[in-house]
Amino acid sequence: MSGDEDIYSRLSPRTRTLAMLVLALSNLMVVLDLTIANVSVPHIAGNLGISPDQGTWIITSYAVAEAICVPLTGWLAQRFGVVRVFTLAMVGFGIFSLLCGLSPTLGMLVAARIGQGICGGPIMPMSQTLLIRIFPPEIRGRAMGLWAMTTLMGPALGPIVGGYISDNWSWHWIFFINLPIAVLCVLAAQALLRPVETEIAIVPIDKIGLFLLVFWIGCLQIVLDIGRDHDWFADPMIVALAVMAFIGFLVFVIWELTEEHPVVDLRVFRHVGFSSGLFTLSLCFGSYFASIVVIPQWLQMSMGYTATWAGIVTALTAMAALFTAPIAARLMSSVDARLLISCAVAWIGVMSLWRAHWTSDISFGEMALPQFIQGFALPFFFIPLTSLTLGSVLPSETASAAGLQNFVRTMATAIATSLVLTEWGDSQRVSRSEMAGALQPDQTQTLLGNLGLSADQARQTISNIVEQEAIVIAVDHVFFISAIILFAAAIIVWFAPKPRSNVDTSAAH
């Protein structure tokens, strides 16, 4: 009996099925937490007495912490064992979820979200590794299919669940609901997965590389998060942080390219297919995530939507993706991945152009339609792009490439959130100024006065209308820029050579 067959025989079919459900549930919880807070930002900001801009630190802190921790996953698994790392990560995730819900200040909430991200980082790749470990190749596809569905369901359920909880209970419960799931997954992992624990090895870790990674990403994220409030490079502190981020990045690149055991293997960038595919991924994922951030805040702040309904509008895209995911997986074997990616990205770009014409009197149905139609293209972008990037590197580099791919995708989310909100705010100010200059307030005030409004009421009415229209113009501006980026990405992907057909995507996470 081979080693692999011995591992498969350690678990009965019933135990394997239960383990599969637990691993899929753990993955769903982590993916859910990336988007569940998006629609709750206005609630959290109002409760903690902070601006919605500051509230977005709740999103970016989680994403950045997760991105930093992902490259360490392979080392942690070798050093402590896959099951042990998975279990401890779930314990930490549950503890930090509790602290998030108990947070009375923004500082504590952001610190707890960073802890959540650090613990959540290994859960997704570890759950995937364990699925591959417990299922033989002939039935592994079905298990991985269920796991992949949770990756798509997370963004769909997150805004709806977060919106419903914020509207009907309290924002604290978007974090408290993780506790029973974390406890269940920890107990189940100990009961079901201990027989398939991996061997432990003493492997070196690139401490200097890890320090440099945390340093330059931390400086960059502080610049992106507080730059809006400090007039960007007019503030010496922002300039200093930007310089430190740039220097830290350069030193990090040089160190990692010369280190024998790098924390992030940058050598895989020598493959043109991987580089162009990853660049396409970062552009597309950042542009796609822009709508997930902007739409819920706009609908709640300006359009009078509840968090629940704002979440439904946001989630429609991921819901539609569930229908086409199986089709995209089947077409992978017969259609050039670059064609699928290019067409899908261009499709999303067209939907972004469509949304760039939204107005302040738009109906729910008019918003829902492009959101839902956009979702059909998502699987034709995500699934083939994984194959394209991993198919462009050597088989021995697949694990490193997959870790780097996940790192870049997560960082693209955090950076896009900061940049989009900055552009949205700047565009609002410009639009407000232009409209104020074009208005004839005296004539408008007289008209409103004839309708029975006092002078103060008339001025407030004019101010409210200008503010509402400035916000929707800024939303349209963000979507227009997103469309341009997506169309560029649809072209860039063709720089990649045609991927190999026998790609092992099991290392992707």
Automatic annotation (TrEMBL):
<dbReference type="GO" id="GO:0022857">
    <property type="term" value="F:transmembrane transporter activity"/>
</dbReference>
<dbReference type="InterPro" id="IPR011701">
    <property type="entry name" value="MFS"/>
</dbReference>
<feature type="transmembrane region" description="Helical">
    <location>
        <begin position="171"/>
        <end position="193"/>
    </location>
</feature>
<keyword id="KW-1003">Cell membrane</keyword>
<comment type="similarity">
    <text>Belongs to the major facilitator superfamily. EmrB family.</text>
</comment>
<keyword id="KW-1133">Transmembrane helix</keyword>
<feature type="transmembrane region" description="Helical">
    <location>
        <begin position="478"/>
        <end position="496"/>
    </location>
</feature>
<feature type="transmembrane region" description="Helical">
    <location>
        <begin position="83"/>
        <end position="104"/>
    </location>
</feature>
<feature type="transmembrane region" description="Helical">
    <location>
        <begin position="236"/>
        <end position="257"/>
    </location>
</feature>
<feature type="transmembrane region" description="Helical">
    <location>
        <begin position="18"/>
        <end position="37"/>
    </location>
</feature>
<feature type="transmembrane region" description="Helical">
    <location>
        <begin position="337"/>
        <end position="356"/>
    </location>
</feature>
<feature type="transmembrane region" description="Helical">
    <location>
        <begin position="305"/>
        <end position="325"/>
    </location>
</feature>
<keyword id="KW-0472">Membrane</keyword>
<feature type="transmembrane region" description="Helical">
    <location>
        <begin position="144"/>
        <end position="165"/>
    </location>
</feature>
<dbReference type="GO" id="GO:0005886">
    <property type="term" value="C:plasma membrane"/>
</dbReference>
<protein>
    <submittedName>
        <fullName>MFS transporter</fullName>
    </submittedName>
</protein>
<feature type="transmembrane region" description="Helical">
    <location>
        <begin position="376"/>
        <end position="394"/>
    </location>
</feature>
<dbReference type="InterPro" id="IPR020846">
    <property type="entry name" value="MFS_dom"/>
</dbReference>
<feature type="transmembrane region" description="Helical">
    <location>
        <begin position="205"/>
        <end position="224"/>
    </location>
</feature>
<feature type="transmembrane region" description="Helical">
    <location>
        <begin position="278"/>
        <end position="299"/>
    </location>
</feature>
<dbReference type="InterPro" id="IPR004638">
    <property type="entry name" value="EmrB-like"/>
</dbReference>
<feature type="transmembrane region" description="Helical">
    <location>
        <begin position="110"/>
        <end position="132"/>
    </location>
</feature>
<feature type="transmembrane region" description="Helical">
    <location>
        <begin position="57"/>
        <end position="76"/>
    </location>
</feature>
<feature type="domain" description="Major facilitator superfamily (MFS) profile">
    <location>
        <begin position="19"/>
        <end position="501"/>
    </location>
</feature>
<keyword id="KW-0813">Transport</keyword>
<dbReference type="Pfam" id="PF07690">
    <property type="entry name" value="MFS_1"/>
</dbReference>
<keyword id="KW-0812">Transmembrane</keyword>
<dbReference type="InterPro" id="IPR036259">
    <property type="entry name" value="MFS_trans_sf"/>
</dbReference>
